[in-house]
Amino acid sequence: MDIAILFCTCVVVLGVASIQTQLTRSDRRVARVERKLDAVMRHLGLEEEVPRKDEILTLVRDGKQVQAIKLYREATGAGLVEAKQAVDAMS
């Protein structure tokens, strides 16, 4: 009985490790595709449209960086670092 539990535990741990490795690979692929897309957009002179950009710019001008970052994240679904970089670039 103890050997069966140990075996099942090992299988679960190996399965989780395998899934984590696949997710890491997927994250790297997505990041690579995003970098390429950003390069193409820069080459074509295109900018990504930011929803609620006017509201975000107003908050930035008023010195409300934290609220601007929060609104940017809500509007775009971006992560904290990406939102901070974007809001900093707007100021």
Please explain how this structure is put together.
- The chain has 91 residues and is mostly helical.
- It has four helices and no strands.
- The chain is elongated, with a radius of gyration of 21 Å.
- The model has no long low-confidence stretch (mean pLDDT 91).
- InterPro entries: Ribosomal_bL12_C, Ribosomal_bL12_C/ClpS-like.
- This is Large ribosomal subunit protein bL12 C-terminal domain-containing protein.
- Pfam families: Ribosomal_L12 (PF00542).
Short précis:
The chain is an all-alpha fold and 91 residues long.
The mean pLDDT is 91
Major sheet: none
Strand content: under 5%
Strand and helix order: HHHH
Going by helix content, strand content and strand pairing, the class is: mainly alpha
Shape: elongated
How many E strands? 0
How large is the radius of gyration? 21 Å
- What is the first-to-last residue Cα distance? 64 Å
Helix content: over 70%
Low-confidence stretches: none
Determine the number of helices (DSSP H or I, runs of at least 4 residues).
4
Give the assembly state of these chains: single chain
Organism: Streptomyces variabilis
Domain Large ribosomal subunit protein bL12 C-terminal: 62-89
Protein name: Large ribosomal subunit protein bL12 C-terminal domain-containing protein
Give the key terms:
mainly alpha; 0% strand; 91 residues; elongated
